[in-house]
Design brief:
CATH class of the largest domain: Alpha Beta
CATH topology of the largest domain: Aspartate Aminotransferase, domain 2
EC number: 4.1.1.15
Protein name: Glutamate decarboxylase
Order of helices and strands: HHHHHEHEHEHEHEHEEEEHEE
Keywords: Decarboxylase, Lyase, Pyridoxal phosphate
CATH superfamily of the largest domain: Type I PLP-dependent aspartate aminotransferase-like (Major domain)
Organism: Neobacillus bataviensis LMG 21833
Catalytic activity: L-glutamate + H(+) = 4-aminobutanoate + CO2
Helix content: 25-40%
Strand content: 5-15%
């Protein structure tokens, strides 16, 4: 097909046919690898590319052998010209330049479009200023998956997870993941319980909190009691999402304070703050700051005894964002999940130790009746009756499929090996850090593979644990 045929629309085709022999590039291969006409308009044979038309410096005396360049005052004084350019017009890569194209404005949509390679190169160059995900040592989030998972991701990111009638196999896979997690966490009826995938464990926590609040409201209304003062209990080291939940949904947060000699929420602290308005207690299976498991079974036993004395039935939601994919494999004898009847729901983050790219989370309820039916909406305009309980609506299916990929790819033995190696690294690092004189190790990764340490009290006044120097001036 001739590249100048009137039926050719370059903006619809990522890589068009080859250009004619007289259309030459002056761009080196590393600057321009595309093969497209230079404009969105339909080209005619008269509008062929000329030498230097794809890439041309504003002024380069060493490149002038191709022909004279008309120099304006600004090109004779490149420094002055650069000073006159406003910051919002500056290009990240000033050498990547084409006739008829200008740097895109940063804070408004441009009047005219550009070639796909130009848009790609601008964004690609700007992303180069970001840190590399594999070098991010301050994240719990998965930054690498196998190439086969990457291919699966590319095949599924355009499927809308909410359209369950159109993508029925994806919906079936999502249900399988829910059943697998319910079974992993010892739900009494894993094939009958309910659960949902979410954009992350934060959304899952929000949904778990909403279910707790609605169950409490229904019970109070049935007893003819007021519902205007709900509260929720967690430790002072809780993840920020629970403070958001309390703020967004008008629930009073009640904190069990931790201390240097007690780094977790204990049952005595829980009993001191709960009352008839408590919608639930939230122990964390893997505290964000330390990696410690809070004692779910001990807290559940204390609440059982409280109910036997007072009649108060206070449920537990376990925030297992990290530990939900660690404890079943590394600490299989630990009782923290649906083996405890007081645990009504559990959330986990699939993009942490679930080993999936962000963002994917899960929440599972112990039994179907633990999720109030009136929180579930039924959508009919997508081709069928689709039940949904989520804060978001449309989102890609890819992460759900990648979670299932890991489940069948790794199996229980594979997850055990991955988490065991992670824990061995944590143990090695904690042992080595313990030998450094200024430091005390608080946690060594024996729960989730996270270690924490602190600067010894009074060791030095010249710097702190963050590496900030404390400069003292003497007169």
């Amino acid at each position: 097909m001739n590249s100048h045929d009137n039926s050719y629309h370059p903006y619809l085709i990522p890589f068009g046919p080859s250009l004619s022999i007289n259309q030459t590039y002056s761009t080196s291969p590393n600057l321009y690898m595309g093969n497209q006409p230079p404009s969105f308009i339909k080209l005619t044979p008269k509008k062929t590319l000329r030498t230097r038309s794809l890439w041309k410096p504003i002024y380069d005396p060493y490149y002038n052998f191709l022909g004279p360049v008309k120099r304006s005052r600004s090109t004779r004084c490149p420094r002055r010209h650069a000073q006159m350019m406003s910051h919002h017009k500056a290009s990240v890569n000033p050498t990547y330049f084409r006739n008829g194209e200008e740097p895109a404005p940063r804070f408004r949509m441009p009047d005219q479009g550009m070639l796909p390679e130009s848009a790609y190169q601008m964004i690609h160059d700007e992303m180069a200023l970001d840190g590399k995900p594999k070098h991010n040592l301050a994240t719990f989030v998965t930054t690498w998956m196998e190439s086969s998972a990457d291919r699966l991701y590319a095949e599924a990111f355009n499927k809308n997870l909410i359209d369950k009638c159109e993508y029925q196999q994806t919906t079936s896979i999502e249900k399988r993941c829910i059943r697998m997690l319910a079974d992993l966490w010892h739900a009494p009826y894993p094939h009958k319980t309910v659960g949902v995938s979410t954009t992350g464990s934060s959304e899952a926590c929000m949904l778990g909190g909403l279910a707790l609040k609605r169950r409490w409201q229904k019970a109070r209304k049935k007893q003819g009691k007021p519902i205007d003062r709900p509260n929720i209990v967690f430790s002072s080291a809780v993840q920020i999402v629970w403070e958001k939940f309390a703020n967004y949904w008008d629930v009073e947060p009640r904190y069990v304070n931790i201390a240097p000699n007690r780094l977790w929420m204990d049952p005595e602290g829980v009993l001191a703050v709960v009352d008839e308005n408590t919608i639930g207690v939230i122990p964390m299976l893997g505290v964000t700051y330390t990696g410690i498991y809070e004692p779910v079974a001990v807290i559940a036993k204390a609440l059982d005894e409280l109910q036997s004395r007072t009649g108060l039935d206070i449920p537990i939601h376990v925030d297992a964002a990290s530990g939900g994919f660690i404890a079943p494999f590394l600490q299989p004898d630990l009782v923290w999940d649906f083996q405890l009847s007081r645990v009504k729901s559990i959330n986990v983050s699939g993009h942490k130790y679930g080993l999936v790219y962000p963002g994917i989370g899960w929440i599972i309820w112990r039994e179907a009746e633990d999720l109030p039916e009136d929180l579930i909406f039924h959508v009919s305009y997508l081709g069928g009756n689709i039940p949904t309980f989520a804060l978001s609506f449309s989102r890609p299916s890819a992460q759900v499929l990648l979670q299932y990929y890991n489940f069948i790819r790794l199996g229980r033995s594979g997850y055990y090996e991955v988490q065991r190696v992670s824990q061995s690294v944590a143990h090695f690092l904690s042992n080595e850090i313990q030998t450094i004189e200024p430091f005390d190790v608080l946690t060594n990764g024996s729960d989730i593979p996270v270690l924490t340490w602190r600067l010894k009290e009074g060791f030095t006044s010249n710097w702190d644990l963050m590496g900030n120097l404390k400069i003292v001036f003497y007169s």
